[in-house]
Amino acid sequence: MAFNHLPAGVHDALVPLSVTPVTHSVPMAKNHRSDRPSTQPVSRLAPRTVLDRLAAGPSRASRITHTEHLPPRAGRHAVWPDRIRSEVIAAVQACGIEHPWAHQARAAEHALDGESVVVATGTASGKSLAYLMPVLSTLLDGSEAPNGRGATALYLAPTKALAADQCRSVKEFSQSLGHSVRPAVYDGDTPVEEREWVRQYANYVLTNPDMLHRGILPSHPRWSSFLKSLKYVVIDECHTYRGVFGSHVAQVLRRLRRLCARYGASPVFLLASATAAEPSVAAGRLTGLPVVEVADDASPRGELVFALWEPPLTEMQGEKGAPVRRTATAETADLLTDLAVQGIRTVAFVRSRRGAELISVIAQERLAEVDRSLARRVAAYRGGYLPEERRALEQALHSGELLGLAATTALELGIDVSGLDAVLIAGYPGTRASLWQQAGRAGRAGQGALAVLVARDDPLDTFLVHHPEALFDQPVESTVLDPDNPYVLAPHLCAAAAELPLTEEDLELFGPACEELLPQLEAAKLLRRRTKAWHWTRRERAADLTDIRGGGGRPVQVVEEGTGRLLGTVDEGAAHSTVHEGAVHLHQGRTYLVRSLDLEDSVALVQQASPPYATVARDTTAITVLETDIEVPWGAGRLCYGSVEVTNQVVSFLRRRLITGEVLGETKLDLPPRTLRTRAVWWTVTEDQLDEARINPEILGGALHAAEHASIGMLPLFATCDRWDIGGVSIPLHPDTLLPTVFVYDGHPGGAGFAERAFHTARAWLTATRQAIASCECEAGCPSCIQSPKCGNGNDPLHKRGAVRLLTVLLRGAPEEQSEGVALVRPEGAAEERENGASLVRPQGTSEG
């Protein structure tokens, strides 16, 4: 595939590539393929040495804005809990583990005491062993029952890949225990002929929340023998259950607890989390149970060298003549290439599927120029692949066949990729928890490792690489989820009623919002009350009412035109912006152009092509205030939180040249608008405040618009969200507030908790926003401060200095601390719910949808 590379003189990545081709690599897994020529392993390089080599090319050193050194840490052992069976201890010791770490022993003791527990320690700290000790010991006890299955355990992973990896590990680990422990994966990839065996005989079932929601709970009579013996529910990587997805999973777990009680079981929940703020609070919100916290990490840690890397400015110009930085994708591809040439085993984490594919293809091209045999040792790993493709890539990584992998977060989540030396992170992943989770993938055997965060041309990334204290001196975020969101709760009440009639005694389990929702579900003829219970009234499956990943609707199938071959799927919510007509779609390193998008049949037809550009969708947004829940004076201005209705429409797409990001053109689209009822935070300013900030009518729209863009870019630093989880609108005169107003809203029906978090951290959030804009070196605004990649108004108007002055004046009136304890004002005459949920006139403002 041809890419429009920079000229050789500009392409500084070619300098470190002009070395003798290597045929070796650093030590790999023992089960590496024997059909490859044998190589002599080299000693593992120190992380600092690896970084120095990466920075050796012209202008490379200046791209490193900060280097953090985390020294190694010694481990603290404990004795084996005396209630763990000797066979399990022997199996662990056979793996070379003589004694558990102190946090593993503590977690196991809580589990054996019947207390739900969350282990929130660092990557590679042995969380799996902490829950496996009590689980396997209890399964051995249960194997002595007359039916051989007196105890069962359920393991939930957020991805199929993690469940498959854990199943492999448990099978290897429990070989010496014979048939007493029978692990099995039960997910969408499990063959039909194996499923009955799993239901009847497996005592450790590994699955994901989606399969629990759609497959296991609706068919609970077929799982009755498993559920009545359920002793433990393991929830791995529980910090990933946030926002709408986390809220759905919380309700799925409440449905599971309800059915277990019906069969006489009361399982203990064992949760594993990356380091997180208040893990017991988040785990309690997720499960609905009190949860004990084990957060003192006693495992040893190797040295970690963590570099912050800012790509250079190019000679290209973006919108409105703004300077353009080299893309994080191109920079990461160069670094991955350099590391592969040195034989450094590396994973590059990328935020998007498209980015993972691009980095893989570019690195393969560059490696082929050095040594053709190296090109096939780099690949992409992402969601959306077919099952057999995922399994093959996982096996290649385990075997050491691959030297480099460009991966989305599908690989972030705990898969044991031992032996890695370096991690590249292409763009801040949205939360500090994810950042440390990804960085921890390297050096998993307690050895030294290198991590490099490559900044995108984005306000938050630019802020972070120049303010390292925001990463290294701050605790990780609290997990945000809202199980009481009515858009989340309603379909789960229907699903619960379809599983077993819903009684008044069940309502406490599902939360206080039930009482208001049940009459609405009755009125919609989804539920019918008979005597003392509510029953599901329809023929279709209630579990199909919602997609727990928050997308909603049928996934769009991506089909190759001419052959009819199914390439993969795209979430319905993302289809308008990713597989619209003319979009570039990547799959397994091949590029396709979307020929048509059929929204009725949920099919996107694509044709293989090699365009020299990528595409980015743009949209417009209108917003209506439905109800103001809370209002706080900020001087003469106001900070508000409440319900809104957002009307969004994808209107066009940009074609951006690969590697450089140069805009080649814009094409209009004709897609239908979509309406969203959600939650928002908004702030207003008065005419006096505008005068104080020297904002005249000519620059007002640009100042508000710039502040909106930058605040959206900075919010992920304060709420566990992604920039693409939220949207915003700025309007010089909004008809509902009658003032200049900036809105930031959750991009999910009913809200996801992000806007609420923004409201409660508004002072710190908007202070960081002002600082990010003011400290940017550009003259009039650029993607690193106030330009947005998804702005439906073409980043026009924008006024950088006006935004700084406006935020300065606004923040002067901010309360010292914005928290639940602050004096809140409920406005008089708060907006009532409009007829049919919408106002007759929707104001159109500048937006980032």
From TrEMBL:
It holds the Pfam family WHD_HRQ1. One of its GO terms (molecular function) is helicase activity. Residues 335-487 form the Helicase C-terminal domain. It comes from the Bacteria. CDD domains: DEXHc_Hrq1-like, SF2_C_Hrq. Residues 108-294 form the Helicase ATP-binding domain. Residues 818-849 are annotated as: Disordered. The keyword DNA repair does not apply. Keywords: ATP-binding, Helicase, Hydrolase, Nucleotide-binding. PANTHER family: ATP-DEPENDENT HELICASE HRQ1. This is DEAD/DEAH box helicase. It comes from Streptomyces cellulosae.
